[in-house]
# Entry
Amino acid sequence: MQQKTLIVLGVGGTIAGLASDAGRPQRYVAGQLPVRQLLAGVPLPPGCSVQAEQVAQIDSKDMDLAVWQALLRRCRHWLAQPQVRGLVVTHGTDTLEETAWLLQALLAPQRPVVLTCAMRPANAPDADGPGNLRDALLVAATEGARGVVAVCAGRILAAADVQKVHSWRLDAFDAGDAGDIGQVRAGQVRCGRAWPEPVAADSAVLERFLAASELPWVEIVFSHAAAGAAGVEALRAHGGLRGLVVAGTGGGTVHHALHAALQRARQQGVRVWRTTRCVHGGVPPDPAAELPAVDLPPAKARLALMLELLAA
Ligand code: SIN
# Structure
């Protein structure tokens, strides 16, 4: 039987983090161990071989355009190799959902690209990284798997739905009302939902993203009690602002003072999208609303607006 090749791309994160005192793993630095070392002792799925590559070594709070470009290039390269069954990306949890969404939007791969992570550093006595990496490799090797997904704490979550919803639990991610794609239990991958659709991404947008020296400037503003106009006015006065995502209250409602400032920004050509600061539920469609709504959480909505501005 021909061996299936899995590619593991290391980006950093707590999964590659080290505590200076393994007995106190709460204090650690993310992005320390090379990806090859993360694989040591992790069982491979039957019939698979693995190749590892270090793309970056960062705390994902510091994710930036250059790392995304490098990761997109390496994913595109490996996805074009016929012997490659799937990719695994070891990533920090903090911006994992943004990277997952971006990879799906720009690559929409026919094969699986599995992001995995950890909530405890690699030298913690009860580190969760090795188990998550083992599960991610199993998912990447699964017949029929495709698209960008996250695998953490035995759960498989689609790039479109995954959100970090807890700051310290091992099971830190959720897929909201959409639900998980499936689970990895005792070495078996079980799916209850379809894999992400390989909807053809606009290759011109990918090329522009890869060639960009900076992304269109889009900020997120929150609506809240006693909100005002000053923040949006200051951003507008700075010059160069291309878009704003407003994370509204509840079903996407916006304080009247902030709303007025956003309308003024729109009149000056700034694109404004409205979503909700609620983790679950989204924004109901309202054709009469003055500010267009988008059914994505704020950080993903910001990326989607940037891509739309790049496409224009
Ligand atoms: C990071 O996102 O790189 C640090 C936090 C984590 O991985 O849990």
